[in-house]
């Protein structure tokens, strides 16, 4: 009887330690996700503020190209709450026309730096969220599954990146050989 009581007490202590360990680990994962999520949102806010500053700078210059006016006006209506394909394509077109019209933007390096910070924060968040066993706990939270990268540079020609991106999207939809 004493042996049975000892086994039950040992089992109860073991189960208690496991529950305490689980809750401590869960709190750690949730706190880390919260911190990484806020870093991504802060970086995105910094990036969008730089875009608004760039747009204000461009508004002081004369546009030679009607297409640039169209995309510049469209940029005002695009929601800047998250990285979207619409925003990326619009920024690609604006950058393309700004470069072809030789309009000056002194903010390209500043925007590129904020974009690099955003992409780094996204990489850290996405990696942390999918790593085992964090992914088990993260599935039960309200945090986003992942954030999109903004694979783009300002002040340089990004046409090859856009072509490759379209090929990869087509590959995802239709399959076949992976595009090189």
What topology emerges from the helices and strands here?
Blueprint: H1 2-59, H2 66-77, H3 85-100, H4 108-130, H5 134-138, H6 159-174
Helix pairs in contact: 1-4, 2-3
Description:
With 180 residues, this protein is mainly alpha-helical. The protein has one domain (2-174). 72% of the residues lie in helices and 0% in strands. It contains six helices and no strands. The N and C termini lie far apart (71 Å). The model has no long low-confidence stretch (mean pLDDT 82).
TL;DR of this structure?
This protein has helices at residues 2-59, 66-77, 85-100, 108-130, 134-138, 159-174. The chain is mainly alpha-helical and 180 residues long.
What proportion of the residues form beta strands (DSSP E)? under 5%
Uncertain residue ranges: none
- The gyration radius over C-alpha positions equals 24 Å
Helical proportion?
A: over 70%
Given the C-alpha coordinates, what overall shape results? elongated
Distance separating the two termini: 71 Å
């Amino acid at each position: 009887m004493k042996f049975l009581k000892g086994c039950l007490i040992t089992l109860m202590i073991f189960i208690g330690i496991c529950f305490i360990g689980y809750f401590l680990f869960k709190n750690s994962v949730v706190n880390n996700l919260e911190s990484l999520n806020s870093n991504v949102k802060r970086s995105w806010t910094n990036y969008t503020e730089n875009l608004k500053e760039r747009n204000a700078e461009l508004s002081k210059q004369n546009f030679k190209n009607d297409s640039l006016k169209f995309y510049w006006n469209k940029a005002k209506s695009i929601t800047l709450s998250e990285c979207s394909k619409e925003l990326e394509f619009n920024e690609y077109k604006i950058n393309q026309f700004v470069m072809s019209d030789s309009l000056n933007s002194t903010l390209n390096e500043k925007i590129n730096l904020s974009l690099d910070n955003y992409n780094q924060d996204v990489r850290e968040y996405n990696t942390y969220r999918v790593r085992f066993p964090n992914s088990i706990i993260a599935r039960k939270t309200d945090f986003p599954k992942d954030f999109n990268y903004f694979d783009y540079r300002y002040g340089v020609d990004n046409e090859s990146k856009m072509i490759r991106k379209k090929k990869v999207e087509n590959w995802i939809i239709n399959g076949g050989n992976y595009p090189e």
